[in-house]
Amino acid sequence: MEKDDIRIARLKEALRNTDMTARDLAAKANISEASISRYLSGKLSPKLDSIQALAKALNVDPVWLLGYDPVVPEKNTLPTGAFHGGIEKPDILVQFEQLSDKNKDKATSYIRFLIETQKGDEDEQS
Question: Do 119 and 84 belong together in one domain?
Answer without folding.
Answer: no
